Structure formats: structure tokens, C-alpha cells
Amino acid sequence: MTTAPTTTEPVPDPTTTEPVPDPTTTEPVPDPTTTEPVPDPTTTEPEPDPTTTGPQPSVPESVVGSWCGGQNDAPGGHWTYVFSGDGSVAAKNREGGFSGYVVTQGDVMIFYVEGSEPFESTWSVSYEEALGTNLLFLDDYSYVPGGCDS
Question: Where is the stretch described as Disordered (predicted)?
Fold first, then answer.
């Protein structure tokens, strides 16, 4: 007669015990009065600092200086633009003006003006034989060296 092998259940060691949760310890519960900060829709992002982010301000050497011109029948008269070598620009006519900085990319100048969206203008400088001087062209309007009185 053959007997089948017998298996026995493991007997737990009476010296070891399963950990029992401490009834005085509880899981942290989120505070229902704490909320994520909500952005204020009335605040606007500040203009980027041209020295730390994005494209660097740049004005071609041939454009640095004061220029007078623009649309002849503009209500505010001609514009005076003043471009600096560090990329800053200021423009004014009889009705007002703006200031900011310029980033030049090829034949396009991107104007960054505080309080408004950036805007682009095509530009070029060419020598005008009849006047004996260079002219700046911004969006096909001509500007002569110097400031405007009108």
C-alpha cells in the first residue's frame, strides 16, 4: 500500500506578530477651506525685460539717430523717430508718441512698446542722390535724418 505524501500548513511563529495599526494615528485630511490661488484677471503680465528674455534689442548702425518723415497727410503731422544703438526707440508727432525697443530681423523691425502688442515694420536705408543723404524707409514711408518740427 502506498501512502500519499502529506502536506502541512505552515505554523505561525508565536513570537512574531502582524503589525496592528495605531488607532490614534489618522491619515491627513485636506483642509476644505484651503484653495488654490486664482489668478487675478485684472492684472497683466509685465513686458519682458529685453536684457533677459527673448530676442535681444538691436538697431542697425545705419538707422541709429533721429529721423523725420512718414505719411504727409497724417493728422498729427510727421513723425520723429529716435533710434539708439542699444535698441531703444522713441517716436513722437504733434498728437503723442511712444517709446520701447526694437528687434531687427532681416528687413523687419519688431517694435516692443509698453502697453501694446508688438508690431512690425519693414525697413531699409538707401542713398538719395538728389538730396545727397540716406533715407530711412519704414513700411514704404520715407524719413530724412533729423527731427521734425511739424
Answer: 1-76
